[in-house]
Amino acid sequence: MTGAPLVVTDLRVEFSGFVAVGGVSFDAHPGEVRFLIGPNGAGKTTCIDAITGLTRGTGSAKLGGTELLGKQVHKIVRLGVGRTFQTASVFDELTVLQNLDIAAGLRRSPVSLLRARRGVDPSIERALEETGLAGELATPAGILSHGQKQWLEIAMLLVQDAKVLLLDEPVAGMSHDERTATGELLQRIAPKRTVLVVEHDMDFMRRFATRVTVLHQGKVLSQGAVAEVQADPRVQEVYLGTAGAATTAAMSAVPEPVAAMQKLTED
Ligand SMILES: Nc1ncnc2c1ncn2[C@@H]1O[C@H](COP(=O)(O)OP(=O)(O)OP(=O)(O)O)[C@@H](O)[C@H]1O
């Protein structure tokens, strides 16, 4: 395993006196597929916004020994913290390779796109392999499937050599097969990186999370292994009251991926 842990301590974010995040602490380590879940408005995206410098927060968010809070967005990116947004932010008119070139800062000319595969930057080639997009090099991003667009965003973070990937609802709107492929992708990239996933999809969380933090009204309600969290009566109460019986059923179902989680934590 490589890389430094992300340690968030007593994170607070206020919007004109409204406390969106009220003293949240959690950590995420390389090798983990760490989940942040909670009902609408719980403060999940705001936590990521504060960690990545998009929103001002107080408290602490450290990558290794380096404090991220108070730093400018581009400096946080340079420290190796990358994120995706709920809506994919790829350039639809550009090919997969051109999108990755921009992410890598290489600025290829159109002529270079005609070069043989060996002309592709090694970091881009690795990212294409890891995300399963190797066959889509010349495909305009706009005609990729919804899932492939999200994978392209993740590939863009990989070519930037992000050590921490903060992914905001990466499987929203995906088919079952795409969700499975995304979970497997996260497990593939996690051993060398810290992956933190904000998600609503409980089934996805149960299948692929190593540890989970549940937020509710800007505070940590529960955190731990999937089985511990879904057995927590406070979590069941919040999901009963806010997300309906379907979610509660999903939360209480037996977790499938225990073997996969054990493998990840052993690696
Ligand atoms: N820029 C802002 N100005 C004012 N209030 C905000 C702002 N951004 C978020 N909020 C509020 O902060 C609270 C937390 O929002 P946030 O988007 O972090 O929740 P979330 O858990 O990510 O929810 P969702 O799952 O719906 O995306 C919400 O009440 C939201 O309305």
Topology:
Blueprint: E1 6-15, E2 18-28, E3 33-37, H1 44-51, E4 58-63, E5 66-67, H2 73-78, E6 81-84, H3 96-104, H4 122-131, H5 146-159, E7 164-168, H6 176-189, E8 194-198, H7 202-208, E9 211-216, E10 219-225, H8 226-230, H9 233-252, H10 258-266
Parallel strand pairs: 3-8, 3-9, 6-7, 7-8
Antiparallel strand pairs: 1-2, 1-4, 4-5, 9-10
The protein binds adenosine-5'-triphosphate.
Residues 15, 18, 20, 38, 40-46 line the site of adenosine-5'-triphosphate.
Question: What's the helix-strand series?
Answer: EEEHEEHEHHHEHEHEEHHH
Widest sheet: strand ordering:
6-7-8-3-9-10
Mean pLDDT across every amino acid position? 85
Any idea what the CATH superfamily of the largest domain is called?
A: P-loop containing nucleotide triphosphate hydrolases
CATH fold-type name of the largest domain: Rossmann fold
Strand share of the residues?
A: 15-25%
Distance between the termini: 7 Å
Strand count: 10
> Mind telling me the C-alpha Rg?
19 Å
Number of helices: 10
Oligomer: single chain
Can you characterise this structure?
With 267 residues, the protein is α/β, with parallel strands linked by helices. Helices cover 38% and strands 23% of the residues. It folds into two domains: 1-79 and 162-244, P-loop containing nucleotide triphosphate hydrolases (Rossmann fold), CATH 3.40.50; 88-159, no CATH class. The protein is built from ten helices and ten strands. Helix 4 (122-131) packs antiparallel against helix 5 (146-159). The longest helix is centred in the C-terminal third of the chain and has 20 residues, at 233-252. The N and C termini lie close together (7 Å). The structure holds adenosine-5'-triphosphate. Adenosine-5'-triphosphate binds at residues 15, 18, 20, 38, 40-46. The site of adenosine-5'-triphosphate has 11 residues, from strand 2 and helix 1.
